[in-house]
Design brief:
- By secondary structure, the protein is an alpha+beta fold.
- It has two helices and eight strands.
- It folds into two domains: about 5-55, no CATH class; about 90-190, Jelly Rolls.
- Helices cover about 20% and strands about 40% of the residues.
- Strand 4 and strand 5 form a beta hairpin.
- The relative contact order is 0.19.
Length: about 190
């Protein structure tokens, strides 16, 4: 075979190889990038990741993977942004509601995230006496706060809890021994700071 034919075949082989290899080396997969498959965390799933996979192929062990998630909100200087949001809960549970003789009403109020809770009870009318117990519910346990508010006709009282010790407030309002029952208003006021 002559030298010209060898050069021509060699050039043809190089051109064909380039036609095949160049598109394969730059071709991207049709799927979405998966960080779990990028073993060296360089942002590209490539032969280096396959090399790592090949080295560990067939090994056994714990299938859990440690994760560090650091997507905290940051300020302009790169420090963790502290959100000091002031929130207030102003809730009217009863507004001049009638409670019959020896009757009662029960309320559960979510006070999660609040620091101070104030419960106000006002006797609006009738001859009965109104008593109110206020407890926190922690899990399934009713934690007694010591709050026992009693109002007689034409009076109002409140109970201030400066530290919230449960996610839920249990308020039990009952009429204690009047002849005609009583009208009562009960309100909740809570703040975060």
């Amino acid at each position: 075979m002559s030298g010209k034919k060898i050069v021509a075949y060699t050039l043809l082989a190089v051109v064909l190889l380039m036609v095949v290899i160049v598109p394969l080396s730059t071709q991207q997969g049709g799927g979405v990038y998966d960080a779990w498959l990028d073993y060296n965390d360089d942002g590209i799933i490539d032969a280096k990741d396959l090399h790592s996979l090949g080295q560990s192929y067939g090994t056994l062990g714990d299938s859990t993977k440690n994760m560090n998630i650091t997507n905290w909100p940051l300020d302009a200087a790169g420090n963790i942004k502290v959100i000091n949001e002031y929130r207030m809960l102003d809730l009217q549970l009863l507004d001049n509601a009638y409670i019959s003789t020896w009757g009662s009403m029960h309320f559960y109020v979510d006070v999660r995230g609040y620091k101070t809770v104030y419960v106000g009870v006002k006797h609006e009318g009738g001859s009965g006496q109104i008593s109110t117990t206020i407890n926190f519910i922690v899990g399934s346990v009713n934690v007694y706060t010591g709050a026992y508010v009693t109002v007689t006709p034409a009076t109002a009282k409140g109970y201030n809890m400066s530290s919230v010790i449960g996610p839920e407030l249990d308020i039990f309002v009952f009429e204690t021994g009047g002849v005609t029952g009583a009208y009562v208003s009960v309100g909740i006021y809570a703040v975060t700071s």
